[in-house]
Structure of Glucose-1-phosphate thymidylyltransferase:
Amino acid sequence: MEAVILHGGQGTRLRPLTHTGPKQLIRVAGKPVSQWVLEQIRDAGIRDVIIILGDNNPSRVVEYYGDGSRFGIKITYVYQGKARGLADAVYRVKDLVSDKFIVYLGDNIVPYDLSKFSKFNSSASILLAKVDNPNRFGVAVIRGNKVVKLIEKPKEFISDLALVGVYGFTKEIFEVIESLRPSWRGELEITDAIQGLIDRGKEVEFQIVDGWWKDTGTPKDILEANSFLLDRYAIRSINGEIKDSSIDGRVMIEADSVIENSIIRGPVYIGYGSKVKNSYIGPFTSIGHNCTVENSEIEYSVILDNVRLRGVSIMDSLIGNNSIVEKGGKWQKLIIGENSSVIL
Ligand SMILES: Cc1cn([C@H]2C[C@H](O)[C@@H](COP(=O)(O)OP(=O)(O)O[C@H]3O[C@H](CO)[C@@H](O)[C@H](O)[C@H]3O)O2)c(=O)[nH]c1=O
């Protein structure tokens, strides 16, 4: 069985943070979103991974994952380019998969048992979760143990069971995709393809996720994913240099970082080569690689790479790569894109 991880798409809702790379590579709790996916797939025993590349700096994805050996898997890359829809992306693996395969949207994090999900016996299987805002998702109507209808981004309520970004397919899906027409948003929808299977009399199974999961499509989603993953996976692991500081609880500090005269209260992740001086880093915060934080306080935030923070007090904030933020008020909430310079 192969797993296909999608790395295309526009990333428009995250745009100030996705100018120089795809959204799937935004790092939460110390790893790119799609690395959490990839490791989950590997830990379920699937070793053949196909990554679909889009047109937003796809070389970044190839540079990061390489041939997959660093992660204990084998990766094949397929170029989709422009985002023509999930079904268009899936169709591109037609000659690369065996009869059953999994598709996982690379910007979703769904901590669900994939070995249980991958044992399906119908033409396709979907993962569903109850949501409050079904119009943001594809949704499914179920009757008994069968899926009877699917609609992408319904304008009127038909179900609050959303498709989360994990699908199980057999090769039967390719024939249906060949007959699809673009939807109102100009895309070949995977939801329509699954509906096509049902229309042809095939069975589609489902499983329900009752725990936490996230489509990391917006800054708020990124912050929530970061907190969840830190809460669940952070361990105490201190590799950097600590001077006159108090490091409490589950704090991960990577090599070549220096923490000086500061308080760090976990769960927290601090990347390689970052310097924290005269500061307080509070729970649920991830700081990227090569950042400098001075005379600042931070809680519940994601700071990406090469960021300089001086004299700021922030919470619920997301700061993009290579940005500089200085002199803020107390506990401000900031969403700042890449390469920005902000003096508050
Ligand atoms: C359209 C398109 C997307 N992608 C990638 C980008 C993302 O990682 C992922 C999802 O794309 P988005 O455009 O964000 O899809 P989104 O509007 O959130 O909706 C999808 O994902 C939802 C779950 O998050 C489902 O409920 C929907 O049925 C499904 O259509 O697939 C590709 O690789 N190629 C594409 O052509």
Remarks:
- The helical segments are 33-43, 58-65, 86-91, 114-117, 172-178, 190-199, 219-233.
